[in-house]
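Re: the 431-residue chain
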Amino acid sequence: MKFTKLSLVAALAVSSAFAGGDIAPVEPAAAAPVEVASPWSFSGDAKLYYSSTDSDTVDLFSKASAIGQAAISADIGYALNNNWKINAGLTGLATLGLDDSVVSGVWLFAGANADETGTLPLTSVGDALWIDTLNVTGTAFDGKATFVIGRQELDTPLVFTEKWSIAANTFDAAVALVKPTDAITLVAGYIYDGNGNGARISTFDSNEGGFTHDDGYMPAVTDNGAWTVAAVATIGDVTAQVWYYDVMDIADAAWVQADANFGGIALGAQYSWMGPKDVLDGLDDSSAFAVKVGYNLNGLDMWAAYSSVDKDGVIPIANTATMVGTIGWGVQSKLYTEAWWNYGFVGQPGADTFAVAANYKLNNYNLGAQYTSVSGAVNKLADATEGADMDELTLLAGTEFMGLDVQLAYIYADYGVTDNNTVQAYLTYKF
């Protein structure tokens, strides 16, 4: 924020001396600084992530079992006036040489890095830089309407930016939010393109799923994007939302959710439906429901949730924007029961899931745990016919130390035929 000293008129105080005494000026008071808001804003963060997973052939903390990566993001904004603002952001990835001796892979693959056959192997450890944000935001009608046009993050039930990795996926989209009353928000959006495709971010190249590729919203399947409309209402302690999606050439979808908090007791319910059409015409509809109960008091937050997905469907109840690149597995879901680390099971057809979690925060310290148990998940996009089970236990510890946000995680996962242990460290510095 800039500070500018505006000129002030110095006042002279005089006093009359008896018998024609002198009139002397008093030193002017120091000019008080007047704060003038700058139209510019700047923020960003630097991250260093590490993860190691053992198996029958590799040990924890060995190079073969570890992935590691650094990222830096910078966002800048310029206010055109009181209502409109331009926003731009860059994200860069680097291994900092960790792949030479400490790790054998990265959190997020970026760019093409195609080999001589033209394929895109998930073994690239090179550096990458891309524009992840470039939009115009504005308000109108006395703040009752808000618009975001351009490259941006999204947070909707079936199309969203995933924050689990070292860099977030973003979208080329136009979104409008209108508040006819203080309690109701209406949403309309068109999403053309995205750079997230499973565990890969497409940058300036022509990868499927990249911002500059012709395939648009859902790579290799449709180039027409997706529409969404929604209504979100808050009445007293209850917030309800209804979403409808038209993922063109793929499916129609809906999401209904209600959440309430009564004196520290939280209740929630979700229902979602997907109806395949056009290129997926003939596939059975997918549907799911979930319920949640929680309790919060003096820094302690606990909850339990259950979800069930119809076994006859094909498309997972999950993030439609990142589904293709992972062939169904690893796609994060907004269902209450989603696992902390092993995504892709909860939203699959036939999946029954139970999850419990607790988190306690005291001053700058945070301790948490989550247990998730999934049974009967069938990945029909990968032609699976038998259900898969997964149990995950995650223990978390976090704090702020010397300006760093530090989080440590231990994850135990049992997939029925095998199990493993994972240890992770997240270091983040915000500026």
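The CA atoms of residues 20 and 282 lie 107 Å apart.
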